[in-house]
Design a protein that fits this description.
Elements (H helix, E strand, L loop, with lengths): L9 H11 L4 E6 L4 H13 L6 E9 L6 H15 L3 E5 L9 H20 L3 E3 L4 H14 L14 E4 L3 E4 L7 H10 L16 H12 L4 H25 E4 L3 E4 L8 H16 L7 H13 L3 E5 L2 E6 L2 E6 L7 E3 L4 E4 L3 E5 L5 E5 L4 H7 L5 H8 L3 E5 L2 E4 L4 E3 L8 E6 L7 E3 L3 H11 L11 H5 L1
Parallel strand pairs: 1-2, 1-4, 2-3, 4-6
Antiparallel strand pairs: 5-6, 5-20, 7-8, 8-11, 9-10, 10-11, 12-15, 13-14, 14-19, 15-16, 16-17, 18-19
Length: 458
């Protein structure tokens, strides 16, 4: 599915989705009771006929932030019952943060939706994000930087992979809220207005008011930004495929030919490669990337550190590895799962508590592990590999699965590399690039986008 800023009426947007979704399909609709998500559910229920190969489920996340939220969730349940659609309510339990509440709410909502999608084995999660939401998102990002190289100007992707396992689709991303409400009114359906949508404390509400007054959304500019971002990421994927190797998940090498060519492509690839190697959730920041690019453009051999990654330029190319500072040990209880240093997911299937920490480098072993790298770089790479300790038994983590064949356990410890910038939230824009990194690190492959190939390429 590709993004375009053309305005689609609700019925056409839903038909477009049903035309391209792979079948059979089990669709989980996230519905809050607001006009957008209610319009999404009602339009889907009217468009799907028996024998179509598409079934609907619905879920409401009660964030428990307002006294009336529980009652609103029950009113959504009543709507779903009337439409004959199975529905569940999940409540965001626990303490709510005083700062960053919107971001925390979004994280909790997606986490709970993924859990429900797992339970019903949903083909995709659907949300009611609209063209109005897209305009607000672009406006907020443009306020931070209106430069053409601001990737945020492409707005929200139509498809996003959550937690590496469930696709979220936004079929109304080219549909105006006013058209959705007109559709609901024509169908005799009502919706719930959330008072927080009128609270000027939130940036999005302030931007919404400004857009309503000025009408300044440039749909053509959004289309151009989407094409630029997709083309840039795909070109970076080709650069990685052709010129990058990663050994044992910790040492990357960019061949000299990869240091030539388009600077913007190289910049994008390296900013995300450094996030992968450094275990950081976000690409290298602009100022840090500027320093790295200036260093590389000088052509002089040497080293520079940015985003917890050492960039070591040699005559035979660029080597990248996590710096060996700040590698803290991590205790994983029996049966527990944890992430160490943002780079490895540890599943302790043993009956003993284990400790994950960095590997003590040994010159001869480092040369054996990284035979093509200069000795100093090989030692540096070995020092950031994970090491497992369990009750005085030590297990070097050179492979992804470590079988414990002696006491204290007969279980297994699984160590799998992660892709920190993509594991939780992967927009379709970067799917090809993330897939290249996944292959190089030996990660599990991403589930395919649940749309027909022709739609994916259009």
């Amino acid at each position: 599915m590709t993004a375009s800023a053309s305005n689609l009426p609700p019925v056409e947007a839903i038909q477009r989705l049903l035309d391209v979704i792979t079948k059979p399909a089990r669709l989980l609709v996230a519905i809050s009771g607001g006009s957008d998500s209610t319009g999404l559910l009602v339009a889907l229920s009217k468009a799907i006929s028996p024998g179509s190969g598409v079934s609907l489920f619905a879920a409401t996340v009660d964030h428990a932030l307002r006294p009336e939220s529980a009652e609103e969730a029950l009113s959504v349940a009543a709507l779903c019952s009337r439409l004959g659609i199975p529905h569940v309510i999940r409540r965001w339990e626990g303490e709510k943060p005083e700062a960053g509440l919107s971001a925390a709410s979004r994280e909790a909502r997606y986490r709970l939706l993924v859990e429900i999608a797992d339970e019903i084995d949903a083909t995709a999660i659907l949300t009611g994000h609209t063209l109005d939401d897209q305009a607000e998102t672009v406006a907020m990002r443009a306020a931070r930087s209106g430069r053409e190289d601001n990737l945020g100007l492409a707005g929200m992707a139509e498809a996003v992979l959550l937690e590496r396992r469930r696709w979220l689709l936004r079929p109304f991303l080219k549909t105006r809220r006013a058209d959705i409400r007109a559709f609901l009114t024509n169908e005799g359906e009502s919706w719930i207005d959330d008072p927080s949508n009128l609270n000027p404390h939130y940036e999005r509400v302030r931007v919404r008011g400004k857009l309503a007054t000025e009408g300044s959304f440039d749909a053509a500019a959004l289309t151009r930004a989407v094409k630029r971002r997709t083309a840039l990421s795909d070109a970076a994927a080709r650069l990685v495929h052709d010129h990058v190797t990663i050994r044992l998940g910790v040492l990357a090498h960019l061949a000299p030919a990869g240091l030539a060519g388009d600077g913007a492509v190289r910049r994008h690839a390296l900013s995300l490669l450094s996030a992968v190697l450094g275990g950081r959730a976000h690409a290298l920041r602009g100022e840090s990337t500027n320093r790295v690019m200036a260093f590389l453009d000088s052509g002089r051999p040497g080293r520079i550190t940015a985003g917890r990654v050492i960039f070591d330029l040699r005559r035979d190319g660029l080597y990248l590895a996590r710096e060996n500072r700040g590698l803290m040990p991590l205790v994983v209880a029996p049966g527990g799962i944890a992430v160490w240093d943002g780079r490895y997911r540890i599943a302790n299937g043993s009956a003993a508590e284990i400790i994950i920490g960095p590997t003590a480098p040994d010159r001869e072993e480092a040369r054996a592990l990284f035979p093509d790298a200069p000795p100093a770089i090989a030692m540096r790479a070995m020092s950031v590999m994970p090491w497992v300790e369990a009750n005085s038994f030590f297990f070097p983590a050179g492979s992804s699965t470590i079988a414990l064949s002696q006491p204290p356990t007969a279980g297994q410890i699984h160590i799998m590399p992660t892709l920190a910038p993509f594991d939780r939230f992967l927009p379709q824009f970067d799917l090809n690039l993330a897939s290249e990194f996944a292959v190089l690190l030996g990660c599990d492959v991403f589930p395919p986008l649940p749309v027909k190939d022709s739609a994916r390429k259009s």
